[in-house]
Design goal:
With 193 residues, the chain is α+β, with helices and mostly antiparallel strands. The chain contains 4 helices and 8 strands. A 5-stranded antiparallel β-sheet has the order 5-4-8-7-6, sandwiched between helices. A 3-stranded antiparallel β-sheet has the order 1-2-3, with helices on one face. Strand 6 and strand 7 form a beta hairpin. The longest helix has 23 residues. The termini are far apart.
């Protein structure tokens, strides 16, 4: 049995179509090969959908690759399914370890931050949208870094909960400048009293 998939031009439709072709040997009563039976099956719709899925995957990867901030999608079991290159880089930088896909959320978090992040993700799984400015422990620096984090539930087209989208922005420089400005203002008001 031989099997192949090929494109054939269909002049009546003025286009190419995909077909699955299977060749089966035909035997007589003594087992001698008489010839071959050929079966053609139109698989154009399947191949077209496969190509669309591949194109959509490439588009999604292009969007993720172009993101400046961290983005990750965790399924309902809080396992990482997709992420931006920035997220991967941040995990390696903050955690000082090699990145791996398809791990539980705890793998991507410093121990001291796990509880609060998981709590926010659980809230998102209940349909809530969380936007928070917080500190996150940066292991190589040995200090907290300010980040703005967004947690949002992700639903399918038929409204089934798929998981949690995480989006993180490093606002450390901005926040430290803001806090220093506040301290300077407080000192100034103390002196002027």
């Amino acid at each position: 049995v031989l099997h192949d998939e090929q494109i054939f031009n269909i002049p009546a439709q003025n286009r190419d179509r995909w077909f699955s072709i299977t060749h089966h040997p035909v035997y007589d009563e003594q087992g001698k090969i008489l010839g071959a039976a050929v079966h053609y099956r139109d698989i154009d719709r399947i191949k077209t959908e496969e190509q669309k899925a591949i194109e959509n995957e490439h588009q999604l990867n292009s969007v993720l690759d172009s993101m400046f901030n961290s983005f990750a999608f965790f399924n309902k079991d809080l396992m990482l399914m997709r992420c931006s290159p920035r997220f991967k880089k941040q995990v390696e930088l903050f955690m000082n370890k090699k990145f791996e896909y398809y791990q539980p959320v705890e793998f991507y978090l410093p121990e001291r931050d796990r509880e609060k992040v998981i709590e926010r993700m659980q809230q998102a799984l209940q349909g809530n949208r969380i936007d928070v400015e917080c500190t996150f422990y940066h292991e190589p620096l040995g200090r907290d870094v300010w980040v703005q984090q967004f947690y949002h539930p992700v639903f399918s087209y038929d409204k089934q909960l798929l998981g949690v989208a995480f989006h993180g922005i490093n606002i450390d420089d901005q926040k430290r400048a803001e806090l220093e400005l506040q301290r300077s203002y407080d000192r100034l008001t103390t002196v002027l009293r």
